[in-house]
Amino acid sequence: MKETVEASKVRVADVELELFDSGRGRPLLFLHGDHGFQFRRPFVSALSADRRFLAPSHPGFGKSSLPDWLDCVDDIAHLYLELMDVLKLDELDVVGCSIGGWIAAEMATKTPERFRRLVLVGPTGIKVGPADKLDIPDIFAKPEEEVRKLLYHSPDTMEANTSEMSEDDLALMFRARETLALLAWEPWMHNSKLKRRLHRIAAPALFVRGESDGLISQAYLEAYSALLPNARMLTIEAAGHMPELEQPESFARAVLEFLGD
Amino acid sequence: MRAWHFSENAYPYLPPAETYPSIRVSLPNQIYDPTKGAALYDRYIEEWLIAEDEGVEIMLNEHHQTATCVDPAAPLMLAALARLSKKARLLILGNPIANRRQPVRVAEEMAMIDILSHGRLEAGFVRGVPYEILPANSNPVRMNERHWEALDLIIKCWTHHDGPFSHEGRFFHHRSINIWPRPMQQPHPPVWVSTTSTGGAAQVGGRGYVQATFLTGFETTKRIYEAYRRGWREAGRGQDVPIDRLAYAALIYVGETEARAHAGAEKLLWYVTSNKVPPHFSNPPGYLPVAMNVQLARGAHNVVSAYGTKQSTVEGAIEAGLMFAGTPDQVTKQIKRHWEYVGGYGHLLIMGQAGFLEHDDTVHGIRMFAREVYPQLKQMYPERLSSGVPCAT
Q: For residues B160 and B177, is the Cβ–Cβ distance under 8 A?
């Protein structure tokens, strides 16, 4: 059975945001990862079963516009705080994956009181290691096969076959890649100020890592979570950088359990 | 018609290509022997000066972290040439200003070279090939916007003479700009821009700068020139587009016999055949428009990787218009065919040295071109001609 999901358009500042708004209940803001958001994923139905599930496509991803002034994750954090105003959401839970986790962390450092609980899944955003070693491998400077191995626990079953994708989907994929580069190119995948601000996030936070994640190391996530006063960590087995896709059931279970549903 | 001797200062002493994944960006510099490198600089400079003696102008460019072009700071080489040469025009094509953090510094360097050379600078600006992105750590997204803001700022640096001015733009910020020296040529040195897209060419045409294109053969060159002429006319510059606004770069080797010419030309193909670069360096995100990446994913040919073409034989390269090689008469005919097909240009940028083309052969090629082909081209294509107008030659 296929239902058609229509995303709505919401205007925030001068940005036209694509917003997937489904389900009823306490609001959960989902901030997608580096590849954009697709509604028809098993983890989405699990998370939206008893919740109002809100997932914007970040500017420059999906069908959201990208204004010429916007060029960093911090810009998106400000934009989404304004989105919360527009939607009249005073307090909510947030789940952010990869760059979405980075956005969530930036938002929560600005208005910590508006976040009840945070789940950060393989989040990027900080730099903790030495200057002569990238904390996060340079996925743009590696052959595709290598990147696949870094991203997935089971690269062969997970990667989309571009020859079977529609031109529209290909365009979305390349656009997401371009926007990711715009946002994360320099400094590479982080904001050097963020780690000096994370202590403001008093809400309980769960840091999730797929055990085979080649982008976000265990040490990186430990250092990240240690910067928040009330954070703990969770590993999802048989998953890489996107446990929400590779292990949707155990991912959703862990998230809902942490959120107290 | 004006001809330019263009040398990339390649370092050809490399291990077999199958032992490394890329000749650019990631090739360890332990392979570079400084002593051999110094001898190569001596030699390449000498070849530029021989070209000057033969009445040919001088051109150079800049690439980074690559064995194909060991000239990562072209203004330094240009400064040396400004003092060693006496009369040739000096074309740098060019300054990769979307990758340089300080356009004002570029304006200063160029002004200094104009003074050092007593007004012989031709200042070129390039967006830079995709493999320059990583060495510069430059964001590949919005390069075009950075490029134009930088170029406009540089022109203002050269032409503003009343003390400090400020610039608070989208990408560059300065509170006090007041360069010393200012250029010798007034109002500023001639400006060149290279581009591979029709949109870019129309913009260059609108501003009236010299438009150069590299190894783009027949069809692409024609499209780029048409876009340039359209941009020129739409900006109200008049119906006639002087041929000296357009330039074409090709691999060129002239010999007294076809056999000798083809032997030289074969060595020039080093640029085509040795340019081993994996896709993650040649197509970084954002460098190409999304629509073009979709076409590439559907199997289209990457038009931006200038040398990554299939024309890796002398005959194929000549057929494709990337190369002009043969006896003086053959080369003249090949250029004529290309020139007329694309609508005409006033500058021929000669890639006359590559890889293992030794000094004697390089000099032979320069002299044969200068003495046997160049006079015919100058006669056929005087500078007063207009581009895009059929000419009776």
A: yes
How, if at all, do strands B246-254 and A51-56 pair?
A: unpaired
Instruction: Look at residue B311 in the predicted model and tell me its pLDDT.
Output: 67
Q: What are phi and psi of B267, to 5 degrees?
A: -70, -30
pTM, to two decimals? 0.95
Q: Do A180 and B280 touch (CB under 8 A)?
A: no
Asked if A186 and B170 come within 8 Å (Cβ–Cβ), the reply is no
| Closest C-alpha to B205, from B380, B349, B388 | B388
> Taking Cα atoms as reference points, which of B287, B258, B324 lies closest to residue B127?
B287
CB pairs under 8 A between A and B: 59
Alpha-carbon gap, residue A170 to B389, rounded angstroms: 42
Phi-psi region of B320 (alpha: psi -120 to 50; beta: other; left: phi over 0): alpha
Rounded distance between C-alpha atoms, residue A74 and residue A83, angstroms:
14
Q: How close A213 comes to chain B (CA, Å)?
A: 21
Contact B279/A at CB under 8 A: yes
Amino acid at A110: K
pLDDT digits (tens, 9 = 90+) for B155-179: 999 999 999 999 999 999 999 999 9
The reported pLDDT for the residue numbered A261 is 75
Give pLDDT tens digits for B73-86.
999 999 999 999 99
Characterize B57-96 residue by residue with b for buried, 16 or more Cβ atoms within 10 angstroms of its Cβ, and e for exposed. bbbbbbbbbbbbbbbeebbebbbebbeebeebbbbbbbbb
Of A170, A171, A181, the CB nearest to B141: A181
Picking from B170, B285, B298, the nearest residue to A181 by CB comes out as: B285
How far off is chain B from A77, nearest CA to CA, in Å? Answer: 20
| Closest by Cβ to A174, choosing from B145, B170, B290 | B290
